[in-house]
Amino acid sequence: MSGGRLLTPKEQVEHLKAKGVTFNLCSEQEAERFLTEHSYLSKVSAYRKNYQKQPPGSPTAGRYIRLDFAYLIELSTIDMHLRYEIIALCLDVEHAIKVQLENDMIANPEEDGYRIVKWFTESESRFIEATERKMLHSYCREFYFHNADNLPVWVLFEVLSFGDLIKFYNFYYDVYHQTCRPPLHRSLLENVRCLRNACAHSNCLIADLHHREELNTSLSNYAIRFDWFSPNLRKKYLRKQFTQDFTALLIAHKELVHSSGMHAAAARRLRELFGKRMLRHRGYFVHNDVIAGAYSYCFELIHYYFC
Hints:
The protein has helices at 9-18, 28-37, 41-44, 69-106, 115-123, 127-135, 141-147, 153-159, 162-175, 186-200, 217-223, 231-237, 241-256, 260-275, 289-306.
């Protein structure tokens, strides 16, 4: 889409050519087919933000430098695989949080699994109303409504969104802060939540690897433990949105997921994705320091946590 109207696939290709995108590795006809059958312009072109433009004053000012349409296709495909893998890791973390909370409650003589839920739902004024609407068409509707009058934590776990689970996690450890400590700082779980939501909505994760975020001090403190993690790496990658969130996710998985089987399965999938699939067209990105650098950082992080 450009100038307020939808463009045909042929017009989309012309629009990209005007921006400096080349069609040497992928023909214009192949690009039109891709934009018809596999994706759409705003989605696949989002990854152009990882490339530099010709500077003002040059004859081709504003046009992208060394950007072929094949690179955009490959980045969009890698992003798709990355989203699927991250969703799996987030589901592991979500399950592990519930396991940890229930174990802590079992070990807590002051808690029966009902009282904390009552306090939590009272503190969240619209939670019950919103949950009851959601449960009308949920797979958990009978389980929920059978226990709705006196909700125990094992039922609550089945109906919480990930965002509400983090709220409950924070609430529990705030209430019982004198007797138990949270296994992971809440700010890291916010990173995981943002990443999970982006994947669930099929947002582009690596469309702009330049994008900066505020430094997460708690995350930085965890990163100090890595013997390979220099101050320069912390400054460079913990202030970028995707690499900050991805770092938080891997730390959360390592700290919270105690199942050796789940951990081994995650390691196997990550090695397959980063060690094989992402390298299929490695030559496309050898001259792009932003993409190559982010990949090297993530690969090193995976090796540290999963090997």
